[in-house]
Write a structure and sequence with these properties.
Helix content is 27%, strand content 36%. It is an alpha+beta fold. The protein is elongated, with a radius of gyration of 18 Å. Residues 1-12 have low confidence and may be disordered.
């Protein structure tokens, strides 16, 4: 018996592109929540979020977010 392998079509796989967004916010109440709300409103699920104190200014924080999307239209909403 001979087996044949077929590679899946691109539409069946649903290829996703990885995006990374970097941003800086002040250390104020609700600042991070207001940024994360934008991702929620665009129906974007973050796969990773990381923060560090900013090297440029005291009391500011740099954030790196990562997410995967198959629809470019969601990125354009940001």
């Amino acid at each position: 018996m001979q087996s044949t392998q077929t590679s899946p079509s691109l539409s069946a796989v649903g290829l996703k592109q990885k995006y990374i967004v970097l941003f800086t916010i002040d250390d104020t109440s609700g600042a991070l929540e207001s940024i994360l709300r934008i991702f929620k409103e665009c129906d974007i699920s973050l796969s990773h979020i990381e923060s560090r104190p900013s090297k440029n200014s005291e009391w500011e924080y740099d954030f790196m977010t990562e997410f995967h999307l198959s629809e470019m239209s969601k990125v354009e909403l940001l």
